[in-house]
Design brief:
two-stranded antiparallel ribbon; single chain; mainly alpha; 3-stranded antiparallel β-sheet; 48% helix
Length: 418
């Protein structure tokens, strides 16, 4: 466990990129510098989306820039609210400048395009998760920004969302989908209602009303669908007599952020009970993923008969290694408590993460023995997502303590231990 102050100091010292105003996505765990190409010397089958002309080091430097920087901004804005430290607000404002830089860079393709900036440079790749984290961080900063900054925030949020509206939510995703591919439509109503409240543009409201019914169920509910018999078992699941779930940190956190936006901006909507159920469904996907050391199991098997979880045997293609992205899960659980105060085990999950992890243990993955040799480089990476979300989780936990009336306990069950 590290002190909150030490965590912030080390994020500032090692993850903050003075050139872009963003946070690096990954560091070499040994040198605490962004990994160079020599770092990937044993990654024989490295195939990170096959972007021509980019080295592995450039690909990893800012891969999740919106998620990492947005999470850290949220943490620092909360720290400013709780402690009044002007340095915290300065860090969040630096993130705004970084996002504006990316936004201006994106105009090379189209207004509002939010590019992945591999190696700090423009690319034609993007993803909605970067937009989601950036927009929600800008929303959090808005009340503390000056007039000029508020104008920039309102422009960015509106244009980042309008890029997708103008294209009917169609854009390619690396080599996997072409430019005519329509991204999952349920991801957009939360952004549309946010953009409407920031800009007042009527077409955002119309689009929100047209698409909002898509949000009645989470996008990523693997375990829920398997329990209901919606999904058929794959060969691996039949062989292990258990359902497989994977990458819960990615899945649960994005969906819970979507429902949080909807419930905050349209709390009286008839779908509000379904949105709260969606938070509960997605928390159920990950609440039993926590290891004793504060990391989480990135893949789990759920017995066909009992539905109790167990670890995957390990190995390609389902290594099931542990990861410090448990910090993301803990943070998402605390966000969910704002709308579902009975969310089982949310505070206990966060407390174990905060007790067990520190800056040096914010690994992308642990347990190299579970990976094929050419993928073990992933266990030598320090994750900006883990570090930024560890800070955000700590601030949310502090806020719960500050807001909680004396003598009132928050629901704190953790139902299954692996």
């Amino acid at each position: 466990m590290t002190s909150s102050r030490d965590l912030i100091d080390r994020i500032e010292r090692h993850f903050a990129d003075p050139e872009t105003g963003l946070l690096f996505s990954y560091l070499d765990r040994e040198t605490l510098l962004p990994p160079d190409d020599a770092f990937f010397r044993d990654a024989q089958a490295l195939d990170e989306h096959r972007l021509p002309g980019l080295t592995p080091a450039a690909l990893y430097r800012h891969e999740n820039f919106g998620m990492v920087t947005g999470s850290y901004m949220q943490s620092e804005i909360l720290r400013y609210r709780l402690e009044g430290d002007p340095a915290a607000l300065a860090h969040a404002r630096r993130g705004l400048a970084g996002f504006r830089r990316v936004y201006e860079m994106g105009k090379r393709l189209d207004r509002g395009f939010f590019p992945k900036i591999y190696g700090g440079r423009f690319s034609e790749e993007t993803s909605t998760d970067q937009v989601l984290y950036a927009c929600t961080a800008l929303e959090a900063l808005h009340p503390y920004a000056d007039a000029a900054e508020r104008a920039v925030i309102e422009e960015l949020v509106g244009e980042l969302v309008d890029f997708w509206v103008r294209r009917d939510y169609r854009y390619h995703y690396f080599k996997f989908h072409g430019d005519d591919w329509q991204w999952p439509l349920l991801r957009f109503p939360p952004l549309l209602i946010l953009a409407y409240h920031f800009t007042g543009r009527e077409h955002f409201r119309r689009e929100y009303l047209r698409l909002v019914d898509r949000t009645a169920k989470p996008e990523h509910c693997q375990l829920h669908n398997k329990r209901l018999g919606i999904d058929e078992p794959i060969e691996y699941e039949r062989a292990n007599r258990a359902w497989l779930t994977f990458h819960g940190a990615d899945r649960a956190t994005m969906d819970i952020m979507h429902f949080d936006l909807l419930l905050r901006h349209d709390p009286g909507h008839p779908l509000a009970p379904a949105w709260r159920d969606g938070i509960r469904i997605m928390w159920d996907e990950v609440k039993d993923s926590l290891a004793q050391d504060g990391r989480y199991y990135t893949m789990q098997l759920w017995d066909f008969g009992t539905f109790r979880p167990r670890r995957t045997p390990g190995g390609d293609p389902y290594p099931g290694a542990k990861s410090a992205w448990s910090a993301m899960v803990g943070r998402a659980g605390l966000q969910g408590l704002a709308h579902c105060p009975d969310l089982p085990g949310a505070t206990q999950y966060a407390d174990r993460v905060l007790a067990e992890l520190d800056f040096s243990s914010c690994a992308y993955y642990d347990e190299p023995e579970r990976f094929a040799p050419h993928e073990r480089y992933k266990t030598r990476l320090l994750s900006g997502d883990a570090a930024a979300n560890l800070a955000w989780c700590a601030r949310l936990r502090s806020k719960i303590f500050a807001d909680q009336p004396r003598g009132v306990a928050v629901e704190d069950r953790l139902t299954v231990n692996l």
